[in-house]
Design brief:
The complex is a heterodimer of chains A (about 290) and B (about 300).
Chain A: H1 3-26, H2 28-45, H3 83-119, H4 121-135, H5 139-149, H6 154-180, H7 184-191, H8 196-207, H9 209-232, H10 244-253, H11 260-287
Chain B: H1 2-29, H2 43-52, H3 59-71, H4 86-121, H5 126-140, H6 143-157, H7 169-199, H8 202-209, H9 214-226, H10 228-251, H11 257-266, H12 270-298
Classes of the chains: A mainly alpha (about 290), B mainly alpha (about 300).
Chain lengths: ~290, ~300
């Protein structure tokens, strides 16, 4: 290979990400969604140090539930707690669960799929059969059982949700690895004595990152939705902590009298999910033009 | 084809065995038990209860006996609903859940497919952007947010529809819309992308070249292939509808199986929980099998082996 060809390859290798970034920037809705998400993330993360909303549990029983207005932008709940503070602090938990459970599913799914695809043969068959079996289960029922029987803690939520979300990720990664593993660069790595783990983690997975990132982005809203679903059933985050699902559940019980208690947390949750879905769609179009749903 | 079906039915056995085993030992590993009440019951009564339900036996024996009974579709008596067997509870709750789920899916299909076709035929025009934006919005509004909002608007403000229960047709409208609306959005998106892929293919150009009318091309030729993604989505959709129904049944106070399951889990009603999980697992496996067979019939490129 001569020098110019080598340079060209380096350039085209580096430009996947800049290409993607350029395409993403052209998608105005995705950019707006990303910006809205940044604002939401900033507000929720800095909620403990923002004036007026630092304590979501401060009660004012004499005040009771007042509608949105001066003093309380989103009104207060029955115990006189400021709803804006509760929504912001709830968002911290919702976003945290979404991100951490996605990480858990990411680690399990990527490893499982890569190992199955890389080693192939009987191991692959057995591992993917296992995925098939789990696929056909009403797995949320198992999550409900896990949470009821063990502990209803945030930690358990991470584990339980992450543990059921990795199946599709495993399939995607396996497919990618299957198409990559016979290429020359993998053979070269094997020839110079790189270990199996080294080939998987240093050579195969980085080359499959595009679809992995896209799917991970779309996993975050899915997990957040499931967390809210479980919290709504009273199985997720426990009082006095509150996620958006908890707030919607609390609000729904008194909706006839104090509708704002269900509307604001519901809108916060829906808006965040909407932006994440839009950003995920945009990322897919940008990173993976083949999958583009045009 | 027959071989395919038989093979899949045989696979059902190990799958259900895995489910049964996981659930069984999950529950045995959990702290607490079905007869641990807030008010302590006398030790000898508790021992009698446990003897009556065979809970005093070694775990291995309980497990084997449970498997043996499950094979005969006998899940035993419910621990927390005295005098009712798990089979009775499933038999009374499932028809309600099935009705709710089937109508929701039907609602989603009748609304989602036309929207998707319309968006695909007007690709990148305002109507496309509008309907796909609405679809993404629909995917993002959780059903347990939509449900209370619909109750608030149509029951508590306008007084048009009853807010709960499952007595007459009027009771069923809000739950069905709530549960189905998310799938309207999914199905519209899938239909659109499926249609877009199909209308570029040669046989559509051929149809056009021989002078078929546009509506005939769309509804007769393109839709058959364009709906394949929707067909393969039906399996996961059924699973999610079953899960979603848990929440909808809670919101609208519907006496379905999902609510029995959650109540059973909270009360550690082991037999009920096991029965419902196994029942739904078998239901889903059979449903997925039917979907795959239908897919093979619709798509001549797929050969089932």
């Amino acid at each position: 290979m001569n020098v110019t060809a080598a340079t060209a390859r380096i350039e085209s290798g580096a430009s996947l990400w800049s290409d993607a970034w350029r395409r993403l920037r052209k998608n105005r809705m995705a950019v707006v969604s990303g910006f809205v998400l940044l604002v939401i993330a900033f507000l929720t993360v800095s909620a403990p140090i923002l004036p007026g909303v630092s304590d979501p549990n401060r009660q004012d029983l004499e005040l009771g539930a007042v509608p949105p207005g001066s003093g309380h932008v989103m009104g207060t709940d029955i115990l006189g707690r400021d709803l804006l503070a509760r929504v912001l602090h709830g968002g911290r938990i919702s976003l945290l669960v979404g991100l951490v459970a996605t990480m858990v599913s990411f680690l399990i799914g990527v490893t499982w799929g890569a190992v199955a695809g890389y080693f192939g043969g009987r191991l692959d068959n057995a591992m993917m059969r296992f995925v098939d079996v789990l696929y056909s289960l009403p797995y949320m029922f198992l999550v409900i059982l896990l949470l009821v029987f063990f502990s209803r803690s945030v930690l358990m939520l991470f584990v339980a949700l992450g543990a059921v979300q990795w199946l599709t990720m495993a399939r995607i990664v396996r497919g990618q690895v299957l198409s990559l593993k016979n290429q020359e660069f993998v053979e070269a790595a094997r020839a110079i004595g790189v270990s199996h783990a080294g080939i998987i983690y240093r050579h195969l997975i980085p080359n499959a990152l595009g679809p992995i990132i896209v799917y991970a982005t779309l996993t975050v809203p899915a997990v957040m939705l499931q967390e809210a679903f479980l919290s709504f059933l009273g199985l997720g985050v426990q009082p006095p902590d509150a996620s958006w699902g908890v707030l919607v559940n609390e609000g729904a019980t008194v909706m006839g009298l104090f509708p704002w208690l269900v509307i604001f947390p519901g809108v916060a949750l829906a808006l965040t999910l909407f932006c994440l879905n839009f950003l995920g769609d945009g990322l897919r179009d940008a990173l993976d033009p083949h999958l583009r749903k045009d | 084809m027959i071989r395919f079906i038989l093979k899949r039915l045989l696979w059902m056995i190990p799958t259900l065995w895995v489910v049964a085993t996981i659930t069984f030992f999950l529950m045995r590993a959990a702290p607490g038990g079905p007869f641990q009440a807030e008010r302590e019951i006398p030790a000898d009564i508790k021992a009698n209860l446990e003897r009556k339900y065979g809970l005093d036996r070694p775990v291995g024996e309980q497990y084997l006996r449970f498997l043996g009974n499950a094979v005969r579709l006998d899940f035993g008596p419910s621990y927390k609903n005295p005098g009712r067997s798990v089979r009775e509870i499933i038999a009374s709750g499932f028809p309600v859940s099935l009705e709710l789920g089937a109508w929701s899916l039907l609602f989603a299909l009748t609304l989602g497919i036309p929207i998707g076709v319309l968006a695909a035929l007007n690709q990148n025009k305002p109507i496309d952007h509008l309907s796909m934006g609405a679809a993404l919005l629909g995917v993002s509004i959780p059903d347990f947010v939509l449900g209370p909002l619909l109750i608030f608007v149509f029951s508590l403000s306008l007084y048009w529809l009853p807010p709960a229960l499952w007595d007459g047709p009027a009771n069923k409208i809000l739950p069905i819309i709530t549960l189905g609306s998310v799938y309207v959005a999914y199905i519209a998106r899938l239909t659109r992308s499926g249609m877009l892929e199909i209308v570029r293919q040669d046989f559509i150009r051929t149809a056009r070249a021989k002078g078929l009318s546009e509506s005939l091309i769309v509804w007769r030729h393109a839709l058959r292939g364009g709906l394949l993604p929707v067909v393969s989505f039906l399996g996961p959709a059924a699973a999610r509808i079953i899960t979603g129904a848990v929440v909808i049944e809670k919101i609208f106070a519907i006496p379905g199986l999902g609510r029995s399951f959650v109540d059973g889990a909270f009360n550690r009603d082991y037999t009920l929980v096991m029965g419902v999980v196994l029942f739904y697992a078998s239901f889903l496996i059979l449903f997925n099998l039917i979907v795959d067979v239908a897919y093979g019939l619709l798509d001549p490129r797929v050969r089932l082996t």
